[in-house]
Amino acid sequence: MPEDLLIIKGTKEDQYKNLVPQIAAIIEGETDLIANLANIAAALKEQFDWLWVGFYLVKNNELVVGPFQGPVACTRIKKGKGVCGTSWEQEKTLIIEDVEHFPGHISCSSLSKSEIVVPVIKNNEVVAVLDCDSSLLDDFDETDKFYLEEIIAGINFNE
Fold first, then answer.
1. Could you tell me the mean pLDDT of each successive run of 10 residues in the chain, 159 residues long?
2. Which of 20, 33, 37, 97: CA 20 to 30 A from 151?
3. What is the extent of the structural domain holding 81?
């Protein structure tokens, strides 16, 4: 496992192309899910300096905050509530340019301006979501969606 990330500047795609294999190397061979989720959140936060990066895990029919980097977070989110709960309910990635215009947005931090939420689907069921918040408006796009979904696909939720 690498001990340090090689952080680069450049286009968003260049940054992801540099980061994705490093994340794969960090989680390769590690069987502890929480350790892997924590390192993924840290790597994304370090590379992109987003406001908040973390995972919510489906437990007892609600999302419960898991490993994250950033300000204190909402602890529990109901299915269909906020961006995370809606992504879970719809089983699809949501890119929100301005969270103030998302009906029912749950504001864990007033500094959050845009958001992307990627559902983690295993055995045709959402088991978690990856939530990334930015203090900038319109900070997420299809490039983020593509690479974040690729990162999510590499996580082993079966162990």
1. 80 97 94 96 97 97 97 94 96 95 76 94 95 96 98 85
2. 97
3. 12-153
